[in-house]
Amino acid sequence: MDNNTLDEYRAVYLTAEDLRLAASILYNAYHDDPFFVDALSSSDKFAYEQKLRAAIREELNTLWQQKQALIGLFDGTHLVGVACVVTQEVPLGEGRYWHWRLKMLLGTGWQSTQAMMKKESTILELLPNQRCGVLQFIALAPNEQGKGLGHQLVQAAVSWCDEQPNLEGIGVFTTQEAHTHLFKQHDFVSLGELVIGSVTGQLLFYTGKHDE
């Protein structure tokens, strides 16, 4: 895709009306994600898919309510990609609020809720300090793959990071080599290998570039 075509896309904050479509995009993108397959383990495909829908819906709603960065990539008025960054200004991991735990417990079960909190705690332990965020979700709609939009979506996330005076960087857990390569092209560096549950991946980190 040439630059003139890419320029037709814009990255802006999601509105409440965008959340349902954003959840659908994330569901399709993370359907076969190794972490969710492991964390939401179920021999019943329908049960797994119900858990995944619940996990994504509750997390999106929580991030929205806590005024975290929900970034949408739009082609005109059409939402084609989503990136969600959460900062440590809100409790993560073992510090998650009780109402988040309750909703996740009802939607996904105890073991799955524990697995998600453990993942966050493991990531936080490797981040440089508490002034760092986590890229919780990043995804393109299925029919938007292969257009170079992944780069634009990652760039939207790092540009947002650069604009936050109190944020020193963002981390992301990747399990696929193609995703790792994409992030590294945008100045993410590896902080090391992580094993979360039965899933092995890389924790990548982008250091924000703030004006002096």
From TrEMBL:
Q: Where is the signal peptide?
A: none
InterPro entries noted in UniProt: Acyl_CoA_acyltransferase (IPR016181), GNAT_dom (IPR000182)
Domain N-acetyltransferase residue range list: 68-187
Which protein are we looking at? GNAT family N-acetyltransferase
